[in-house]
């Protein structure tokens, strides 16, 4: 199945949708997100302090200090 985006004049929208539905085309409605919804999602993003990141840095340094064993 392919996705197709077309621009239809406002006065022909219903006619074109009717024809396409008759041909078995699935018509998806556009979902518009408001800026307030977007801002609400951004507010839920966690913020990490430098202290929170220390564990990652310590783990990275410990991993970098590992040496492969020689046989």
From TrEMBL:
Organism: Pedobacter helvus
Name this protein carries in UniProt: Uncharacterized protein
